[in-house]
Amino acid sequence: MTASCGAEPPLHLQVNGRACSIEGVPRAATLLHLLRNDLGLNGPKYGCGLGQCGACTVHVDGVAARACVIPARGVAGRAITTLEGLGTRGRWHPVQAAFEDAQAAQCGYCLNGMVMQAAALLARDPQASEARIRSELSGNLCRCGTHIEILDAVQRAALRMRAEANR
Q1: 3-class DSSP string for the chain
Q2: Taking residues 115-138, what's their average pLDDT?
Q3: Domain 2Fe-2S ferredoxin-type spans what residues (predicted)?
Q4: If we measure between CA atoms, which residue out of 66, 71, 69 comes closest to residue 56?
Q5: Residue 20 class from Cβ within 10 Å (0-12 exposed, 13-18 middle, 19+ buried)?
Q6: CATH architecture for the domain at 11-85
Q7: 72 vs 94: CA distance, rounded Å
Q8: What's the CATH number for 87-165?
């Protein structure tokens, strides 16, 4: 019998549809740290570190969540989707395509959070009104002032998703 004084077991989770097993994840590590530093996924950004700005937003089992305040070990066995897993070049998710079409980015730092929050909303409610979209995105900060373009992009995405659903 071997003792493992303080050694952490591997962390198992699904990231962007792929099974991951990560060794040596410290108890204090956040999901954001794990995604960026261990898995090299740079979509989620470090903004405030308090879960208030939205730059780190990912989907956990399809629900938008702030990765900077989620303990990495708290998502063991869960499905995590980052911006990199939402769509691919040539086959963007409708929200990504709409953001590109609407030129809704200026510096782009908030873009991850805006896209991920909007994608989660439209997955739940493809008929989301402008007021609902504004409310849903109100916790995502954009310091560049592209709010009008972002709102336009989300409305475009909603139209695309409804059109695709009706095909």
Answers
A1: CCCCCCCCCCEEEEECCEEEEECCCCCCCEHHHHHHHHCCCCCCCCCCCCCCCCCCEEEECCEEEEHHHCEHHHHCCCEEECHHHHCECCECCHHHHHHHHCCCCCCCCCHHHHHHHHHHHHHHCCCCCHHHHHHHHCCCCCCCCCHHHHHHHHHHHHHHHHHHHCC
A2: 96
A3: 9-86
A4: 66
A5: middle
A6: Roll (3.10)
A7: 29
A8: 1.10.150.120
pTM value is: 0.92
Q: Taking a C-beta distance cutoff of 8 angstroms, is the pair 82, 15 a contact?
A: yes
C-alpha span between 147 and 25 (Å, rounded): 37
Over residues 116-135, the mean pLDDT reads: 96
Per residue in 48-58, pLDDT (tens digit) is: 999 999 999 99
On whether the CB atoms of residues 154 and 98 are closer than 8 A, the answer is: yes
| Count of beta carbons in the 10 Å neighbourhood of residue 161 | 20
The answer to whether residue 79 scores a pLDDT higher than 90 is yes
Rounded to an integer, the average pLDDT of 26-33 is: 95
Does residue 3 carry a pLDDT above 60?
no
All structural domains of the chain with their residue ranges:
11-85, 87-165
Amino acid symbol at 70: I
